[in-house]
Amino acid sequence: MLNDKKIGFIGCGNMGEALISGLVLSGAAKPENIICSDVRQDQLEIVHEKYGIATTTSNLEVIQWAQIVIYATKPQILHTVLKETAAELDMSKLIISIAAGVPLAAIESCLDKKLRLIRVMPNICAFVKESATAIAAGKNVVEGDIELAKAVFDSVGKSVFIQENVLMDAFTGLSGSGPAYIFMIIDAMADAGVKMGLSRKDSLFLSTQTVMGAAKMLLESNDHPGQLKDMVTSPGGTAIVGIHTLEQGGLRTTMINAVEAASKRSTELGELMIKNFAENGSK
User: Fold this and answer.
1) At 105, is the secondary structure helix, strand, or coil?
2) Element (H, E) at 75
3) What's the whole-model pTM score?
4) Which helix (H) or strand (E) is 78 found in, with range?
5) Which domains does the chain have, with CATH numbers?
6) Is there a contact between 117 and 89 (Cβ–Cβ < 8 Å)?
7) Which of the four, 119, 149, 191, 244, has the lowest number of CB atoms within 10 Å?
8) Alpha-carbon span 239 to 232, nearest angstrom
9) In angstroms, what CA-CA distances link 44 with 26, 32, 134, 152?
10) Residue 127 CB: number of other CB atoms within 10 A?
11) For residue range 149-191, what is the model confidence (pLDDT) as tens digits?
12) Tens digit of each residue's pLDDT (9 = 90 or more) over 243-261
């Protein structure tokens, strides 16, 4: 789907490079069809050497050349970059933003023109090609735009299409912030193994492998997690005693509360972004 599309990146920091790597190494896009801009010449040299893509320090050059433009900048500078490049944007191009926490409403108010606009939020696991990514579309997308966006981000994991105003903040609380929760769980399991006599190295490896194996089993079996949990628990056995202890500690309630709190914070930050973009646009 992407083989004949020219893809441009505004910014090639950690997430931008992760996407470029995914596109090139998976074969989803040809290196000669990718261009990236950045203010850091040393970073441009690195991505050119590693992936064989074109690079430039001019954001406008990227816009003029590309059919799909991906804004991979930090949220705090997105407004400035959008204003700089707005004149070159039109309905002939698919515009994708991966700036964390910046709603479509903020971007639309900044650009103030009819554009094929999509907001995408990958998570940190894009670095190992296992991102859970949410895709939300603006009102002017055309047929095939969502599929193009999915093709880009499926190169670094798996993506889902959601409704921006209703569910993007919920995604942020669950999958955007979720890796941090899992890292804490793995760390706690490793501490528990050390307490019971395992070495730190072995305990951390076993905890990490256990979480990865459980996740893979759940994805590949399509069974409900409760069914798989029941496969591990035997009457009067070790697992059921461990589960009882987790329930006493309020594991489920704590996880639900964490996702809810993170989702609400995402909503608050998004409202601030909309306000800030509107205020900057009026200056």
Assistant:
1) helix
2) helix 75-85
3) 0.90
4) helix 75-85
5) 7-165 (3.40.50.720), 178-249 (1.10.3730.10)
6) no
7) 244
8) 7
9) 21, 15, 27, 20
10) 17
11) 999 999 999 999 998 777 999 999 999 999 999 999 999 999 9
12) 999 999 999 999 999 999 9
